[in-house]
Amino acid sequence: MNEVIPILDKIAFLCFVVATMFGTGLKLTVQEIWQPLRNIRLVVLSLLVNFVLVPLFVYLLLQVIPVDEPVKDGFIIMALASGPPALPKLAQIVKGNLAFSTGLMMMLMFGTVFYMPIVLPLVLQGVQVNSWDIAKPLILMMIIPLAIGLFIKSKSENISLSLQAITAKLSSFGLLLGLVVRLIVHFSEITVLLTNGVIFVCAIFIVFSFTVGYLLGGPGIDTQRVLGVGTAQRNFAAALLIGTSNFDDPNVISVIMVTSLLMMVSVVILGKNLPELDQGQSAEIEQLEVS
């Protein structure tokens, strides 16, 4: 059983990410993805929130709240890793702007590839980060499926429509399976974090990240929701890659895994309680985006 669970976790993650990116490509065009990123103010604020405000806040928070060194390392890695592969799916859950979520994810993801190798060694001594090691799995699992989906969408609307239902089911299945498996695998770590107070740091991390992202995520409610969840949910894939290749202490990986899991669960719960955008709000948002 112990050998099956890690395999199920990998299958769930691969199914979730690939199906989400492929399905996103089937729904959008390159122009639709690019359009929200023409808002320079929104782009600058997105970069500021993810690469300056959140890392700085977490770094200062860990100076105030004493935690063990491995726990601190795990939180720092998560704070610096931006551009979550799950963002398009999370945007659907919170009824956000899918096109903006895709463009934002790619922008933050590529930013992380260059940002982490420069900044991480400055705050954590002895850590070595190779940009290509981060970029390679992201390209294979995310960019290529997205590009294939965009290509099919551009060539045949009927085929893209017929495939959307399948990819949506695969994406939801991967998300649900991944959450269940990780809850089972990391139940003991979650219990430990609850008893030693580290979960409190994690909660502050998530609340601050979502709040600052939401408040700076104009021009409309749907972009605010996307930047909120896109900031609160960090790039688990990049963080895990760096954690496993640079640290022998299992507590570093545990913090990364548990924080990512709690971030995902928080977003899913949040999305269930958010109201749908009405036609008036949607029209107002479209007008703001055009202007």
Automatic annotation (TrEMBL):
It is a multi-pass membrane protein. The chain crosses the membrane at residues 12-30, 42-62, 98-122, 134-152, 164-185, 192-216, 252-271. It is found in: Membrane. It holds the Pfam family SBF. Its main location: membrane. Keywords: Membrane, Transmembrane, Transmembrane helix. This is Bile acid:sodium symporter.
